[in-house]
Structures are given as structure tokens and as C-alpha cells.
Amino acid sequence: MKESIRCIRQNIEKAANKVGRAPEEIKLIAVSKTYPVEAIKEAMGYGCKEFGENKVQELMTKCEVIGDEVNWHFIGHLQTNKVKYVIGHVALIHSVDSMRLIDEIQKQSAKKDCITAILLEVNVAQEASKYGFGIEEVPEVARYISKLSHVRLKGLMTVAPYVEKPEENRQIFSNLRQLSVDIQKQNMNNIDMAILSMGMSNDYEIAIEEGATMVRVGTAIFGERNYE
Ligand SMILES: *Cc1c(COP(=O)(O)O)cnc(C)c1O
């Protein structure tokens, strides 16, 4: 794992340098879903401070053992009835994909008197199997969030299709970045488009070349997952 993480950091630096970006503006989110607490602790030993999980129960169990020493990122489809468990424990919810979910995050955050940072998940490739807003819906949704007291929109996220050649996803990443630039230009209250969460084990270097500020990497750090 030590070698994998070193190698990924080096690749991040190379990809950033290639397009004249500062490597420090890119955060590596270690996606620890399905992996045990021991694996997270090992990654912490190699300097990882940001961890991504996609199941509420699993996140809460790990969060209880490891605590707030690290930042937790929720990256999976979040059911509205489970929002109350994660509010106050996660640094960022990447995968906000419906108006109902936004309303529930606002409600639960107000109840706990905290402000929750979110990203909107965008289904750039318009895959029927994927969650997320359509590109054309996002400006309207952002405008809605700008009026909420306990939700802060920090940027956009996408899950690109699995492809043989990562280059095939370049246009998707580029489209997400263009969307974030367009929204930033509208200067809405409380809306900040600083974060672009895109790129996974297979294609994070291309995502960085296209402007990613957070890459979500699981397999390349922890190895193949076993879902049983
Ligand atoms: C599992 C997952 C990842 C990590 O995928 P890898 O291919 O293992 O790097 C990233 N983002 C989301 C939303 C995921 O569910």
C-alpha cells in the first residue's frame, strides 16, 4: 500500500504539472468502502487524511472507531431517511442527487445547528444506470441551494463510465468543469464552485488534466474489492 500511495501521489503531481497546475490544489480521497478499519489505519500511516465511503452504516461504524482525526467523504447514493445519521460527521457529501435530498440535508442540518457542505452529482454521460442531475438542471438547483441557511454548495461531482481507455472520459470531465465555470460566473449567494470531484483509479490523471480538485481513488490504493 505504501508504494501504491507513493505512486499515485507522483502521478497526481505529474498530471498537474503537465497542465501547469499546482499539485497541492488536488486532494486525494482514499475510497475505503468494503475495506476494514485496519486498512484505513494503514493508509493514515502513509499520510492519507481524507476517506470516502458509500454506505451509511459502514461509514458510521468506521467513524466510531477512527473518529474525527480524518475527514469523511460520503460518495454514494444517500437515502433521505439516513441523512440524520451522517450530518455532523461528514466533511463533504459528494453525491447529492435530488431536491428531496437537499431539503432533508437542510432540515437535519438546521436541527443540529450545523452547516453541511455538499457537491451536486451530475450525470454528465446521461447513463440510465446512474444517479445525478442532468447538466441542464444544475444552474436551477444551485439557485435553489443559494437560498438555504444550512447547506453550502461547494462544487460538482461526477462518476464517469468505466472505459478501457481513460482518454475516452476526457470530454465528460471537461464538460463538468465548463458547467462549474458557467455557474461560478452567475455569482450566486453562498455558492462556491471551488471543488470538482472527478476521476477514479482508472482515470484520475485525465480528470486532473481537466481540472479535478478531488480524485476518488479506491482500487489503486487498497486493491480489488470483494463485495461478499
Ligand atoms: C467506489 C467508488 C470510487 C472508487 O473507485 P475505484 O475504481 O476503486 O478507484 C470512486 N467514486 C465513487 C462514487 C465510488 O463509488
Topology, number of strands: 8
Total helical elements = 9
Bound small molecules, deduplicated: pyridoxal-5'-phosphate
Low-confidence stretches: none
Strand-residue proportion: 15-25%
Q: Within the largest sheet, what's the order of strands?
A: 7-6-5-4-3-2-1-8
Structural class: alpha/beta
Shape: globular
Please state the CA-atom Rg, rounded to the nearest Å: 17 Å
* Average pLDDT level: 96
User: Helix amount, in percent?
Assistant: 25-40%
| Largest β-sheet summary | 8 strands, parallel
Secondary-structure element string: HEHEHEHEHEHEHEHEH
N-C termini distance = 22 Å
Description:
This protein has 228 residues and is of the alpha/beta class. The longest helix is centred in the N-terminal third of the chain and has 17 residues, at 2-18. The chain contains nine helices and eight strands. It has helices at residues 2-18, 37-45, 56-66, 83-86, 99-111, 138-145, 170-185, 204-209, 219-222; strands at residues 27-31, 50-53, 71-74, 92-96, 116-121, 151-157, 191-197, 214-217. The protein is globular and about 45 Å long. Strands 7-6-5-4-3-2-1-8 form an eight-stranded parallel sheet. Helix 3 (56-66) links the parallel strand 2 and strand 3 (71-74). The structure holds pyridoxal-5'-phosphate (PLP). Residues 31, 33, 54, 75-76, 159, 200-202, 216-220 line the site of pyridoxal-5'-phosphate.
